[in-house]
User: Fold this.
Amino acid sequence: MVNNRKIAIVLPAYNAEKTLRRTFEEIPAGIADFIILTDDHSSDGTLSVARSLPLSHIIEHDRNKGYGANQKTCYDKALALGADIIVMLHPDYQYTPRLIPAMCNLISAGLFDVVLGSRILGRGALEGGMPLYKYIANRFLTFFQNIMLNQKLSEYHTGFRAYSAEVLRNIAYKSNSDTYIFDNQVLAQIIERRYRIGEISCPTEYSDDSSSINFRNSLAYGTGVIWVSLQFFLHRATPLKSGLFGKPVQQDAKGDDNSV
Assistant:
């Protein structure tokens, strides 16, 4: 708990057997009221590792539903538990959990509604091993989105984020894609609602055990980013309104099937 705000840390996991324990052990003690892991039908020992850790809740998908669907389950559960601040952290140890208190404090102090752990601020990305082609694509897509969405963010593609629960309750995240483009759609929805976004420099570690989408999926993601940006621009500047920015559907009062 931070400033009497309940904190939920959500770990959307898929084949994170080798990095989950290290990620969990670096979460600062006492910061989280709930730590929720959703396993998207991993083919390795992710669930076995998860069951050996003192997690608050473990939710198992009965089939692989996709990166976006995994986060939807996480957020549904965190909101149902009454969390005030929800931190999404990839359990592949690409981002350091030690920044969680700083990110939560920025929200609990009323300075921002959303805080992103940026790999681009400072020199974290390339020094941490981000592949050069991904760095170049990140910079191009971020430049394009800053123009289309009228923002000045250092990146839109981080997997380390803290949200005020109010933000997630007031965007239509449940209607978003179940694929990797989910994260980008969420940011576009947040910007459309004019929530305040802060960034904090985040050291990054790419290793053989870190999750990473392949080149084909990267191309699909890049195309999706451009489409999300165009939808936002047309929604704001023309009579052509996008369902992406509609009202949120009613949140479920439960997590998902097979919740522990």
Observations:
- Strands lie at 7-13, 34-39, 57-60, 85-89, 114-118, 160-164, 197-201.
- Confidence is low (pLDDT under 50) at residues 251-258.
- Residues 7-245 form a domain with the Spore Coat Polysaccharide Biosynthesis Protein SpsA; Chain A fold (CATH 3.90.550.10).
- The two ends are 22 Å apart (CA to CA).
